[in-house]
Every structure is written in structure tokens, then in C-alpha cells.
Amino acid sequence: MATRIVEPEAGPRSKRAAILAAAVDCFGETSFEATKWSTVAERVGIGQTALYHYFESKTHCLLTIMRLELQRSHDKFTEATEDVEDPTEALRAAVRAAYEVSDHEVLQMRILHNHMDLLSGPRKSKREEAERVEARKLVQLVERDWTNLLVRGMSMGVFPLRDAQLLGASVLGLIVSVWRWYRPSGPTPLAEVSELIEGACVRMVAT
Amino acid sequence: MATRIVEPEAGPRSKRAAILAAAVDCFGETSFEATKWSTVAERVGIGQTALYHYFESKTHCLLTIMRLELQRSHDKFTEATEDVEDPTEALRAAVRAAYEVSDHEVLQMRILHNHMDLLSGPRKSKREEAERVEARKLVQLVERDWTNLLVRGMSMGVFPLRDAQLLGASVLGLIVSVWRWYRPSGPTPLAEVSELIEGACVRMVAT
DNA sequence: GACGGAAATTGAACTGAACTCAGGTTGATC
DNA sequence: GATCAACCTGAGTTCAGTTCAATTTCCGTC
């Protein structure tokens, strides 16, 4: 069924994880386009060409970061909602879970949502395309997560009947729109954002 | 006060408008990164180098498109809301206005919101930086448009008191999140989207 | 403790798209 | 029909991403 990409099992001296971490920092702070691939190499402490042992291209690395973040988001959603029967409470839990993130994950979110458009068109190389397809699947999974939650609420009569797909996409859109502007160093603490959005989402789907 | 960039007055044989139009088509359909600057030239019917008579760089062209779109959005908001005293009705009118767009404007919206991150960091060249600064100002203007609308409603007692800035950003985020996925050729008509989002926004800010 | 082989790394060379430069055309105005 | 600015071009430069051919490192095995 859901065929997760097998993470290349890390040999003991693999720098894959280090590269991903460095790339997240660079891409998240400086932006993907503006950071030189060679800078990532420097930060890890290897030559530029060594990067190609782990990733087919700069974009392949980006797509991998995006896929991993999507996987995390989906897992977190599932974990937060699976034991909650009341739809409103489940919705609240899902929103809160979406904002329970480390600073590093904030960067990953920013990277992910700033490059969503990459997932629409096909890629030329094999491994890039594999990551892209997998990421697209995960996007649809996450969308279904939210939609299903709403459908459940509607069929239980807790939420008024509306186009669940459209409303689900909207709720999700509202939640992730935060990653455009939120900065850990900024004036608004994430807890405050979380609280306001949680309320907004509940009102959106409720009467 | 608000110093609009003076649009270079078009000489009779200027191709600036044609370049902008072609660029919107290319960037909107193929994405900015993936479209070759020379393709835009071809589509207009000039050599690549002629582009540099009108724009300092590919990015300068992109920033111009973004600024123009922001200007349009702000003007449309103002026009739609200026004569409406009731805050709820004004909010409804503003949302509807946001979705009263041509197919070409849909592309501009997509381009704008896919490259918002460009506006955060400074640019190296003069004219790029000028466009960037102006665009940033317009972003803040638009944010203030929505926030002020909420503040008015709150002070009139129509909307419950909440962090207007945060809520304004959220409403705006919800509205523009649509441009990520909406396609004129897709299954969902924009009118339907507009209606659902209008309701969602009203519920978000209301009791 | 030499040996084979996979994983990891490298310097030098290549590519292609954005951009520069130095000059050439066009056409409105006097 | 001279002038001047707007407009355009072909030939070359740059630079980040990428490829290539070859080497080093490390681990298990004989």
C-alpha cells in the first residue's frame, strides 16, 4: 500500500544526516535559491562533489527535506488524533499538534511551504522524481487527514454539512499560512498563534 | 506619502507591457525558476538581450509583477469596502473582491504568493531593491487593510475582541492559500471557493 | 597483517542560463 | 536630412551546478 521510500541505511561514516541538517539551516534561513550548494558542503566539512554521493542534485536534497517534513506532519496528526472520539476535540488536538514544533522543524515547514509548487510538475531525473511522487502522495494523505476529520464531525452532526474537501483544504491552508511569516525570534510566541488559530479553526467548521 | 514607483512611461514602441504579460504567462504556468528568460524573449519576439533594456534582471521582472499585483489587490480592497459601513458586510465584500479576478490575475496571484519570501532579504542591485522595498510596503498596506477592518468591527462591538493583527494575518492567509491549488481548469469553480471562504472568514472573526 | 571491495571523497573539467559589452538600427522631431 | 534617444543585437563572460576519472578510507575476511 503506502510504500515509504526506504531511507538509505546510513553507513557508520555517512554524512547524509549532517548534510540534511545543514541544508535545512541554509535553505530555511537564506532560502533555497540564494544558498550555494557549495556552502552546504563547506558547513558539513566536505568538498562540493562529495554531496553528489548522497544526493543527485541540490533539488533532490530539497525534495528529500520536503518529503521528510510531510511524513512528520502526517505522523504527528495521526498520533494526536487517533484516541480522540469527539470531533471538535480532535480538531483542537490536531491544530495544537501542528504547532508543537522545534525551531529546526519551523525551518523545515518554511522550506516545505515555500516550494510546494515543485511538487506539481514532473522532474527529469529518476531519484528526484521518486521523491516528488512520494511527497505528492503525502500531501494528499495529509489533506485526507483533515478532510476525514471534518467528514466524521459532519456525519456525527457535530459540524454543519459543508464541502468537506474544500473546507479541509482551507483549514489546512490557514494553519500553514503561519509558516510564511512566523519567526522564533519574532514578537509573537508560537503558543499565542496556536491558540488563536485553534479557535479560528473550530469556529470555521462549527455553526 | 505613499510614493508609488513611477511606471516608466511607455514610448509608443515599448515592449514592456508585452514582456510583463508574457512573463506572467510563463512564470505562472511553468514557474519562475523553470522558465528560461530567453523563452520570454522569444514569446515577445525579441532577442534575449533586448529584455535588459526594460528589466535589470529576470528577478527584477518578477518583483515588478509582484508589486503590480499587490497594488491591484490593495486598490480592489479599498474600492470594495470604502462605502460599506457595516463591518460584516465590508468583510464579505472584501473577500468577494479578492476572488473577482481574471485568469491572468490568477496567475499573477500564484506568482506573487509563491515568491513572497523574496521580499524579506535585501537585493543587490538598485532597481531590484527599489521594487522589493515598494512591494514590502504594499504587503504591509494590505495587511493593515484587513487588520483595520477587524479593528473597526471590534470597536463597534460587532466582532468579539481578539488580537486583530494576528487575526487579520490569518484571514488574509486563509484567503490567499487558495492560489496555491486553484486552477481555472480545475473541478472547483472560483465562485464556489469564494462563497465558502466568505462564510469561513465571517465565522472566524465572529462569535 | 595483507587483500578485496564498497563507501566516501576529491580536483579538474564541463554546461548552460543569466548577464555584459560594444556597437548598430529605427523613427520621431527639428 | 541631421540629430538624438529609444530600442535592439551577436559575440563573449560569468558563475553555480554538475560530471568525470581517479584516489583514499575503512571494514570484514583469508
From TrEMBL, chains A, B:
Q: Which organism is it from?
A: Streptomyces violaceusniger
Query: Which residues belong to any copy of the HTH tetR-type domain?
Result: 13-73
Q: Which protein, by its recorded name, is this?
A: HTH-type transcriptional repressor KstR2
Q: Which gene encodes it?
A: kstR2
Residue ranges of the annotated DNA-binding region, renumbered to this chain: 36-55
Keyword list (alphabetical) reads:
Coiled coil, DNA-binding
Q: Name one GO molecular function term.
A: transcription cis-regulatory region binding
Query: Which Gene3D superfamilies does the protein's record reference?
Result: Homeodomain-like, Tetracycline Repressor, domain 2
Give the InterPro entries listed for this entry. Answer: Homeodomain-like_sf, HTH-type_TetR-like_transc_reg, HTH_TetR, KstR2_TetR_C, Tet_transcr_reg_TetR-rel_C_sf
